[in-house]
Write a structure and sequence with these properties.
- Helix 3 crosses helix 9, helix 6 runs antiparallel to helix 8 and helix 8 packs antiparallel against helix 9.
- By secondary structure, this protein is an alpha/beta fold.
- The chain folds into two domains: about 150 residues, serine acetyltransferase, domain 1; about 100 residues, 3 Solenoid (UDP N-Acetylglucosamine Acyltransferase, domain 1), CATH 2.160.10.
- The N and C termini lie far apart (about 65 Å).
- Strands 1-4-7-10-13 form a five-stranded parallel beta sheet. A five-stranded parallel beta sheet has the order 3-6-9-12-14. A four-stranded parallel beta sheet has the order 2-5-8-11, with no helix packed on it.
């Protein structure tokens, strides 16, 4: 094939890809000068949060009790600045108005939400400390809290989820989903930031776990690998489109255990202290204290 023919092929591809009907819904038309969220920056933000929440395990490994306030102060200042920039980018992406003072107002809103997120970090540390303890107490192969914090994919995924969930509660668009999807790609654990998960939560092994947006999970719940907490069906509106935002995922009350590859679908309740065995399909309520297993 001659170079001329190559040119024709390339030109035709450009023409086809530039046709409006080819990029409908796929072309981001943002206002010139507005920032865009950065995956690299969000990874730095998550790393900074980990260094604050688990000092010594992440970030500067030479930190000690004497230098801890300094290191946390530096990390929080950097976290606040970088998070403000990323929240601003997300707000700009969600707001396509062109009006005087818009950017200044959005920057102020972004700084406020970033500061409010920083204020949640002490509570996040308490929650994650309980999650680490749950993982350690629930796994005889765990030899120390340090091993759990450093090695267990569940702690990485739950940590990202808890950060993302707080940002979602602060009405930060897009970023919470990016943060949980980072953990999903790293660990194979898919937790939607909209799920509500109580303290002392753990996932053993974790690969293939899916927790849907409207799940409510109580305290001291343990899941094993391959568990799906999903939706059974998607109600449609008058035009045949899925109705979004309605409760459609399971509720797991306190002290529930769900073993590997169980699939629990729909807005059903698994009662307190119930045990759901492995490889089971559950679409009806499970009474408190029940033990659901496969029939022999």
């Amino acid at each position: 094939m001659s170079p001329l023919n190559f040119t024709h092929i390339l030109t035709q591809a450009v023409d086809e890809l530039s046709a409006p009907e080819s990029y409908e819904g796929l072309f981001l038309r943002h206002i010139e000068g507005d920032p865009l969220p950065s995956g690299r920056a969000l990874r730095r933000i998550v790393d900074l949060a980990r260094a604050i929440l688990f000092p010594g395990y992440f970030g500067n490994s030479t930190v000690n009790s004497r230098t801890l306030p300094y290191h946390i102060g530096v990390n929080i200042e950097q976290l606040f600045e970088e998070l403000t920039g990323q929240v601003l980018a997300a707000l700009c992406l969600a707001d396509n108005r062109v009006e005087e003072g818009r950017n200044e107002a959005l920057h102020q809103l972004a700084a406020e939400r970033a500061a409010r997120f920083v204020s949640t970090l002490p509570r996040l540390r308490r929650l994650l400390a309980a999650d680490v303890q749950a993982a350690y107490n629930g796994d005889p192969a765990a030899h120390s809290f340090g091993e759990v914090i450093s090695c267990y994919p569940a702690i990485r995924a739950i940590g990202n989820y808890r950060i993302a969930h707080e940002l979602l509660l602060l009405d930060v668009p897009l970023i919470p989903r990016i943060i949980t999807e980072m953990a999903h790609s790293e660990t194979g654990i898919d937790i939607h930031p909209g799920a509500q998960i109580g303290e002392y939560f753990t996932i053993d092994h974790g690969t293939g776990v899916v927790i849907g947006e409207t799940c409510i999970i109580g305290r001291n719940v343990k899941l094993y690998q391959g568990v799906t907490l999903g939706a059974k069906s998607f109600p449609l509106d008058a035009d045949g489109n899925p109705i979004k935002g309605i409760p459609r995922h399971p509720i797991l009350e306190d002290d529930v255990i769900v073993y590997s590859n169980a699939t629990i679908l729909g807005r059903i309740t698994v009662g307190r202290g119930a045990v759901v065995g492995g490889n089971i399909w559950v679409t009806e309520d499970v009474p408190a204290g029940a033990r659901i297993v496969q029939r022999k």
